[in-house]
TrEMBL record:
Gene3D superfamilies: Glycogen Phosphorylase B
Example of a GO MF term: glycosyltransferase activity
Organism: Crateriforma conspicua
Highest taxon of source: Bacteria
Name of the molecule in the record: Glycosyl transferases group 1
Amino acid sequence: MNRKVLIPSDDPFFLPGMKLAYEELGFDVVSGPENLWNTDAKYDIIHLMWPETYCFHSPPNAGLLKRLRATLGIWRRKAHLVQSVNNFYPHGYIGNTAYWELYNIFYESCHLVHHFSNSSLEQVSGEWPVVENRRQIVTHAVNYRHLVHADSCRKKLRSDFGLDNDAFVLLCFGAIRNWSEARLLIRALSQTSIQGFRVLNAARYRRVPGSITSMAQKLSWRFWARFSTKFFFDQVIPDEDVYRFFGAADAVVVPRIDSLSSGIPMMAMTFGRCTVAPDSQTFREYLPEEANEFYTPGDPESLSAAIQRLALRPRASAEAKNFEQGSSYSWKSVITKCLHEISSR
């Protein structure tokens, strides 16, 4: 009989790779956040991802925290609990006391804390002392091989978007987590002057629920993006279409200011694309320095200069290096290391 693992998540980007890796290693996989509450089920491993999933991405109340502590306490006695660290805090809530307690409950309950970078280990250990009493492991990043499509000719994909083949195309992709990130992009892109420069904008502003200010900021982002970037897609991009955006681009920008990690560089490397990323320990751990460009976090002039440096340099060898690096990352390797750590103690 195969061992069973529960991944109580429905994340569209991480979950497919995780499920496939566990299945290749001989596990039966159950997913979905709702299954965390069914403590009558039997699993060998529960691989936890985002704690904020269980409070619908809003600060939890005392009742929910109590219920989660009790539920995870039951699971801790029945299965091996692995917590992968994806965020320092939920986006926009750094220092929030309710979220601090939520994360503390998850770290306190798990047997193994899994980090994707040494920077993650250092920051989380400094904020949540309880992790010092838990086993911790640092692995490499992961890739998004399941999103790659055979039909990835850059010239054809650009033609589909109406982009010139000889343009320098910068992709904005994923979530804009707060107004500081939006303002950084607006200022940097507005002052970037490159012949044939085009922005393929598939970045969505993530507003704080119930906040009038956040709603106004989202509308401002939409207004700027719609009238200042010719190619703006204000919608969730389905998995089956992600390759079209990365395949058409020369480079991808990561507008993070205060972030533990981001999946965008890993996605870019999966497709062999260059990244313009914040100059921080986390991103330098992921990205080959010689194949990408870095900028001072939060500085629009520095970001604009990094974009221009990348646009003016030969990129064929850099793309090959990024693809090689991305291909060396895998969920199977990450899961194997976690399983080894569990079984060795």
